[in-house]
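Write out this protein's structure.
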Amino acid sequence: MSKSTRLAKSFYKLLFPIILLIVVAVAAASVWFARESSHPGTAEYLVTPDKYGRLSARGAQVTEETWNNRDGTTARGWLLRGADNAPAVILLHKYGADRSHLLNMGVKLSEATNFTVLMPDQRGHGQNPPVAYTSFGGCESTDTVSAIEFLRGLRSSGEGNLVGKDIGIYGLEMGSLAALTAASQNDAVKAVVLDSVPADSDSLVASVIDNRFPFVSSFTAKLGQLGAYPYFYEGCYSRTPACESAKAMTGRKAMLLAGTDAPEFQDSTSKLEKCFPNSTQAEANTALSPSGFSVINASIPVSEAYDQRVIDFFRNSLGEPVMIASEPVPAN
């Protein structure tokens, strides 16, 4: 054996443990970032129906509901019943928020339309969540389909169907991914409002890690995306691009919103408009200031204007309520 060959083997034996250690460290770090970002942390609700009901008669009618997801886990949400056989709208919050962030919009939507409104806590969110982790829109999209099935099973006081044939979904950031995928799989969803839509779940993971671990964020984001493969190996994490889901939505109505307060999602939301088929009426306003991403921190007039934009869209898309006696019902 030549001296150079022996030297190369010795060098290899010296470096191999170091390389192996680096690979193991990177793999462990990537899974850790994926796990940490999938547990957003919880906080007390901004407002509860009990407190809101002191200011609003409609808000006092909100009830706490639970139902089963398709994988056997438990889902929960606040329900505001509307007129018999009227449409229903599901409101889906963003990563790191919870249903209380959408309670005010839900009550105002119900008052303006008399639609049934459901405000779920998505996985890993809200106080003491029944499922401790989020999957960045993957499992959440299937959970949204389960929420639609829950609404379909509701009965009115006369034992007829409470909810009519049409469903609308509002989704913000992570909620928009869940809303878009669920709508692409369920023809009952006739109208969607999608605010600050990530290009896919990987993009959402990158944004979350960038905000939670800003040090060398471009590197840590890549680690988190890599770690999602083993961490969600048997889960329902989805890498389907939002554009692919949009292509499957035929004959619907969609409104896309985004703003300067979430610039990382402005471009992806703008591009999404071109993904819908010609049979879907899509409109976009991606220059809001702010968008729904941070409207919770905006002034009352600004937040009311944002909510009214969403309410008007659903009212026009799902049916204008008509007053008959003392109860409004949607027009045919």
